[in-house]
Amino acid sequence: xxxxGEWKRVSxxxxxxxxxxxxxxxxxxxxxxxxxxxLLDQTWAMWVGIVVLVVSIIDLxxxxxxxxAIGYLLRADDLLFRRGILFQRxxxxxxxxxxxxDITRGPVARWLGLADLKFVTAAAxxxxxxxxxxxxxxxxxxxxxxxxxxxxxxxx
Length: 156
Fold this sequence. Notes:
Elements: E1 8-9, H1 14-40, H2 43-68, E2 71-74, E3 78-83, E4 89-94, E5 98-104, H3 107-112, E6 114-121, E7 128-134, H4 135-154
Antiparallel strand pairs: 1-2, 2-3, 3-4, 5-6, 6-7
């Protein structure tokens, strides 16, 4: 998908946010499965823990590439967002349809100086979130998009 303009990528620090999330998830699920297996003698729980551990390790291997695949492009009439390696997703959000632009920060992202920019549009299923932006970039992009959205809505 060739577009005029330059694709902007999320911060490389976002890889750490995703890695921490994957590890925490694996520890919680594997810990619960281990407790079921050891305390209640549920053999199936051991297999669930092993599967979750293997999937988490595979996820950790692909995490840097998955983060590099996230990007956005500001075009004349909309913002184009992309993510995904095997199953790619491209979403175009028209400036005039943006109703709310929200900045959120999780604990690890906040510690790294990162934020997520979330858009709410008239179509609830088309919600887009650009994760892993530097806080200053997220705030300036939010302000720019609010300005563009207001100017486009005025023309409707």
